[in-house]
């Protein structure tokens, strides 16, 4: 698994020297759950824009890492936020994760581990606490940023 993650690290231009906001937007199972567990893309966008405003002019390019089981989330954000002001990172290979069979496959496991790995490297993560993966990410991040 370590080698696999290394391959993805080489592919992704993830600069740890700049603030990176992570978004974990679950779609496939959240649509069917309680109304409060589904969050629109606009809600995520509002939060990451506020976070970068709070940081001020410390960086020229604002970096956002998007992890979602719905490829349209990444496509939407990439279409709305472009270089040179924004650098949107993410993997297009999550497009089939809405298929339950593929979600429970080896590639589904790699996809989750990969997303958790990169989200925990972010400085700030936006996710829903109804997600077990979100809570895992926050627990791992708490070991990096104790306060």
Automatic annotation (TrEMBL):
InterPro entries xrefs: Fut8_N_cat, GT23_dom
Keyword Kinase in annotation: no
One of the protein's GO biological processes: protein N-linked glycosylation
The UniProt record lists the keyword Glycosyltransferase: yes
GO molecular function terms attached to this record: alpha-(1->6)-fucosyltransferase activity
Stretches assigned to coiled coil: none
Region named Important for donor substrate binding: 26-27
Residue ranges annotated for the GT23 domain, each copy included: 1-147
Alphabetical UniProt keywords: Glycosyltransferase, Transferase
TM spans (from-to): none
Similarity remark: Belongs to the glycosyltransferase 23 family.
Name of this chain's protein: GT23 domain-containing protein
Organism in which the protein naturally occurs: Allacma fusca
Lineage: Eukaryota, Metazoa, Ecdysozoa, Arthropoda, Hexapoda
